[in-house]
Description:
Residues 136-194 form the Magnesium transporter MgtE intracellular domain. It is built from seven helices and no strands. Helix 2 crosses helix 3. By secondary structure, the chain is mainly α. It is rod-shaped and about 155 Å long. The chain has a domain at 144-204.
Amino acid sequence: MERMSEEQEKPKTSRFQWFIYAFLIPILFGITVALLVFTITGNNIFETAKEFSRKVPFIASVFDDTNSRSQEVMEEQLIGLQAEVKDREARISQLESELDSKELEIERAGLEKQRLEEEISELTAIKEENKRAFKDIVKTYENISAKKAAPILTEMKDEEAVKILSNVNSDTLAAIMEKMNPEDAARYTALLTAAKEKGGVSDN
């Protein structure tokens, strides 16, 4: 039995060896020689295979499908990149618009601040001028006679008269009060007392 199995295995082994020596090794040798020849002659074996495959309908269709798919992928990527670029350009435009708006707002605020400062300066100057003019008025009432000053003051509004009377010196005030009739003198005395208690009459 053992001899029969050995005899049956020998033909199988010899057939496999025959396949290797007669078919596989020559093919591998031929491929090696072909690659060597193509390399020496400067031909690109892959480009040649590609040209050959184009002549064979089935292989050419496989290459065409691969190329078309890769081209579709590249076009999709290109469209995606273009959309991203447009989005970023739109965002940049929006930020530039916001920046211009902020700069305009800052410029307007600066102009408004400058206008207010100028207005404050003008009002301050007017106030100082009015203060000097009021001091001149007070000095005038201190220099004229009490007999002339008393009737002028009684013709004024009480607020204006009290303001002047509260700023003249005490001697002038006493002299003017003496030249007023008792009713006016009593009224101005009460008004002056109330104004001093509030502390809001003096222009100094």
